[in-house]
Amino acid sequence: MATASTRTLAPPRPQTATGQALMVKGTAQVPIFQRNLSKAAFERLATMDDAEAVQLGVGVRDRRGLSRALPFDEVGMLLAAEWMRRQVAPGGILAILVADEHAKEMGEPADEVAGQAAAVRRTLHVACEALDIPARVVLASELATSGRYKQHYSRVCDGLGAVRNELSAYTVRELADIAYLADVAGAKVKVGWAATDNSNRARAGQFDEPYYDALFEQHVDGSLAFFYTQPGIRLDRKALRAAPYLEREPQARVILKPGEDVARKFALAEEHGEQEAARTYRKLLNAIARMVRSITGIEMTGTVEERTQRILDLVVA
Prior knowledge:
The chain has helices at 19-29, 35-45, 74-88, 100-105, 110-130, 140-143, 147-160, 169-184, 209-219, 262-271, 275-296, 304-315, and strands at 53-59, 61-62, 65-66, 93-99, 135-139, 189-193, 225-229, 232-233, 241-242. The protein is an alpha/beta fold. Helix 9 links the parallel strand 6 and strand 7.
């Protein structure tokens, strides 16, 4: 990534589109955007100068433990971020951060975290290349010991003040990540996900990205634009919604790996009574297929399972 001292700032973009017009365009081409949560960011985008990158984070651990697989659902987030990059940073990249350091701080064995993070990084790199998305995928552990990152971590702590004592180390690191990528990569736009489209970000869910972003905006820097996609979907009606990039039970998702049989996964789920979950998942996968067509130009025909299989085979080859 370019440093702040070497970056060449892009000229301001002619401000002709209103926030409403941008939102209409965005939600048409990226149907997984959460409209209510993203509305303020679309309004801000209409008056922002071009950014130099778009940032997004990919976790490797949830509250229950270390993730075991990277779901296909993450392709939706990548495409949403790529659409946004084309609007605000057409000459830039996606700056993707894999949150391995966070998992280690939460007590996960370092060797297991390293293995999962390396697999996620490799899969994301291959997927971005296949979709012609200019991206750089970095591990949080590669940044955590650098002097520049430590400066941003201190800046975040100063901005939080006494509030820091009420927050977990994980939360503080999340905010430092955002600050670092905004400065060093010029990534003034962030694409995340949210379980619900609650316009009050602070109440959208303590473990959703809007929670962290609201803290960042309130205590660190209020100039960034935060956009949100819908959550990932699981073939399990008892735990239907989840992070697009986390899964501890691979049988409940379509997984980004060679040899994955999409049709069989749905058939097995429906044999076990998960028809409603399968219908909901198909809606998400259909939206992702529409995004592949509108953003990459790749034609998509056939059933949802057939289109998903084609995309899957493309991005894991």
